[in-house]
Design goal:
Elements lengths: L2 H7 L22 H12 L6 H25 L5 H18 L4 H6 L5 H13 L2 H14 L1 H24 L16 H5 L2 H5 L14 H16 L3 H20 L5 H24 L4 H6 L1
Helix pairs in contact: 3-8, 6-12, 7-8, 7-11, 8-11, 8-13, 11-12, 11-13
Length: about 290
């Protein structure tokens, strides 16, 4: 059954009552704000056809990502001292836990130009480009799962913004006194050209959505195939990004832990919303 047929067959939420003449639960007057929202949603045309749906997804994800980056950049102002203080406190926590290994791990590759370029490459090109390719593949071949993972990406981005506002965090690469080196700025100018510092919040290390989003795509890829090579690639996506964010000095271990937690919570919420909103017009628009 198509989304439109599902909507047409769905009970009218404005009915006059049940068989016994009493008001049913669906007849209870909703809040005026909810009524206005439902009326607005009802006016949104359903995107029909693969091309229209694809363009709809491009616009939806593109607008959400631009908004995410703009908000992420805006919240930076005036919070630099707090971000460095939080990073210092995070180092103290990692030392207490016995996991402050990042400077030593970065030291293993810092004199090897090939490894520096390799992990810089993973950090830059193994993130958004890979997510984009996999998202297109899911849209074309696994449409049933696409909406859930797209929504998980959007939800995790929203959660991330809450962290960036409430818990600004300087990345390790800004802490030379702690033994870190910014390998991307020193050895690769491509990333700074793609994400110009003036337009990006440089103090949004917690959580690591580089890792969180790669984890979501890895789970999606793992679920989509039983081929051992495809599943191996699915595992490699988050594992390689974990190595990259540490070796390039962009995140602490606890940033990575937070990124994984945010991604998994977002995936759970996306799955829950898909179940709760099934057979509604909002689901038909976004599914």
């Amino acid at each position: 059954m198509s989304n439109q047929e599902t909507l047409n067959s769905h009970p009218d939420v404005t009915g006059t009552g049940g068989p016994d003449g009493n008001l049913s639960r669906a007849d209870e007057s909703p809040h005026p704000a909810a009524t206005g929202l439902m009326r607005y949603v009802s006016r949104i045309p359903l995107p029909h056809g693969n091309i229209t749906r694809f363009l709809f997804e491009v616009v939806l994800i593109g607008v959400a990502y631009v908004a995410y980056q703009l908000v992420r950049g805006v919240v930076e102002g005036g919070r630099v001292d707090v971000a460095f203080s939080n990073a210092s406190a995070l180092i103290d926590v990692e030392r207490w836990l016995g996991i402050f290994w990042e400077p030593q791990l970065q030291g293993l590759i810092i004199n090897n130009a090939f490894l520096i370029d390799f992990f810089n490459w993973i950090y830059i090109w193994g993130h958004l480009p890979v997510i984009g390719v996999l998202a297109i593949g899911m849209f074309l071949f696994r449409r049933d799962a696409f909406a859930r993972y797209r929504n998980a990406l959007l939800i995790s981005g929203a959660i991330g913004l809450v962290f960036f506002v409430t818990l600004p965090m300087a990345p390790p690469r800004f802490l030379a006194e702690a033994g870190f080196i910014d390998t991307i700025t020193l050895y690769d100018q491509v990333y700074r050209a793609l994400q110009y510092p003036a337009f990006v919040n440089q103090y949004a290390a917690m959580p690591s959505l580089h890792l969180g989003w790669n984890l979501l795509m890895g789970i999606a890829l793992f679920e989509s195939s039983k081929n051992v090579w495809v599943r191996g690639l699915a595992v490699l996506l988050p594992v390689s990004m974990l190595a990259a964010i540490i070796f390039t000095g962009n995140h602490f271990f606890l940033d990575a832990v937070a990124g994984v937690a945010v991604a998994l919570v977002a995936l759970w919420l996306a799955s829950l919303l898909n179940r709760r909103l099934a057979d509604t017009r909002a689901y038909a628009i976004l599914a």
